[in-house]
Specification:
The chain has 4 helices and 5 strands. It has about 130 residues and is of the alpha+beta class. A 3-stranded mixed beta sheet has the order 4-3-5.
Length: about 130
């Protein structure tokens, strides 16, 4: 309130951007707008890593890349580079520490994202599933 008397705060008002997405209204984070913007720019990679009872790889990881370039500047497929990075990440973790599946998941996520960034110059969203 500015008058009469000295200026005082009488209420608080929300501020910032509000988005209408389909039938919903909310912030960019609540509507998932940031993630969708990132997806449109750099794509998404899903990796499935299967470990056997000795915490060794039970085979090559399965990888699905959507919205990611097919090959790098040298002609090597990005999917092969990312699979090699995932295998290297798991192999670099000592077997005892592989029991921590969250550690394996994060190591693979970082390795795959780094391989894509090195070859392509973009960091896709990476989702990793670790199964034992």
């Amino acid at each position: 309130r500015l008058a009469p008397g000295p200026a005082t705060i009488i209420d608080q008002v929300p501020f910032g951007r509000v988005y209408k997405d389909g039938n919903l209204i909310g912030t960019d984070q609540a509507m998932g707008i940031r993630d969708r913007r990132k997806l449109s720019f750099a794509g998404h990679v899903a990796v499935n890593v299967v470990l056997d009872e000795k915490y060794e790889l039970a085979g090559d990881p399965d990888l699905v890349a959507i919205g990611v370039a097919e090959a790098d500047a040298r002609g090597e497929t990005l999917e092969d580079l990312m699979i090699d990075a995932a295998v290297g990440a798991v192999d670099s973790i000592p077997r005892q520490r592989r029991k921590d599946l969250d550690l394996v998941q994060e190591a693979v996520r970082r390795a795959v994202r780094g391989a894509a960034n090195e070859a392509w110059g973009k960091k896709p969203l990476v989702t990793v599933f670790v199964t034992r």
